[in-house]
Design a protein that fits this description.
The protein contains six helices and no strands. By secondary structure, it is mainly alpha-helical. Helix 1 crosses helix 2 and helix 1 (2-25) runs antiparallel to helix 6 (140-193). It has one domain (2-183).
Length: 194
């Protein structure tokens, strides 16, 4: 099991590094790819809503799920037909999310029972998050490229982390295997001495 987990981490790390390099090299294409992924997600969500609608026993939920499915299909079609405005909306959504997350982090900084360092970290990260959201709202065109670059950097960092973890896990697996194999030999040596 450890070997398959280490292999999985190594493969995921290599893929993340590759995606990170592509995102940093071609941020415009990355933004378009994120819009296409959003459209795919919307179509999958529409299919899920259709399944829920036709597996429901009463008419009320059927109509609700079908309407949600139609909204999802519409969102997917709009994303594919107008990728530029869709990217803008996604940037604004991320900006709103960053601002709300920042406010929640600042609120968490006021919680009783946290150490001063933890509270300061909540305040600083909350302020950074709010500033990031403001920048995305102020310059959404630049924000789309910035998000693509951040996506690339995140994938590079995660990819290298996963590679290191996979290699360390593989090394630990080999060490554990050698210790398990060595155990019977040591017992046999002790038995022959006695």
């Amino acid at each position: 099991m450890l070997k398959s987990l280490s292999t999985s981490l190594i493969v995921r790390g290599l893929l993340a590094v590759a995606v990170g390099i592509v995102a940093l090299a071609w941020p415009g294409i990355t933004v378009l790819a994120l819009v296409i992924l959003f459209a795919i997600y919307a179509f999958i969500a529409a299919g899920t809503e259709a399944v829920k609608a036709f597996s429901s026993e009463t008419a009320g939920p059927v109509m609700g799920h079908l309407l949600l499915g139609l909204v999802d299909v519409g969102a997917g079609v709009i994303a594919l037909a107008w990728p530029g405005p869709t990217a803008l909306v996604l940037v604004l959504l991320v900006g709103a999310w960053a601002m709300v997350a920042g406010l929640v982090e600042i609120y968490a900084g006021f919680e009783v029972g946290e150490s001063a360092g933890t509270r300061a970290l909540f305040f600083v990260s909350g302020l950074i998050s709010i500033a990031f959201g403001i920048v995305l709202f102020a310059r959404p065109g630049v924000g789309a490229v910035t998000l693509a670059l951040l996506f690339g950097l995140f994938n590079l960092v995660y990819g290298f982390w996963a590679l290191v973890q996979g290699i360390d896990l593989r090394r630990a697996h080999r060490t554990a295997d050698s210790l398990v194999e060595e155990q019977p030999r040591q017992r046999d040596q002790l038995t022959s001495v006695m």
